[in-house]
Amino acid sequence: MSALLDVTGLTRHFTAAHGGTVRAVEDVSFALAEGEVLGLVGESGSGKTTIGQTILRLIDPTAGRILFRGADITGLPARELKAFRREAQPIFQDPFGSLNPRMSVEAIITEPLIVHGIGRDRAERRARVLALLEQVGLPRDSLKRYPHQFSGGQRQRISIARALAVEPALIVADEPVSALDVSIQAQIINLLRELQQKLKLAMLFIAHDLAVVDYISDRMMVLYLGRVMEIGPARSLIAAPKHPYTMALISAVPEPDPDRADKRIVLEGDLPSPIDPPSGCVFRTRCPYALPACAEAVPELRQVGAGHQAACIREDIPTDNRRMRHA
Question: Mean per-residue pLDDT for 197-216?
Answer without folding.
Answer: 93
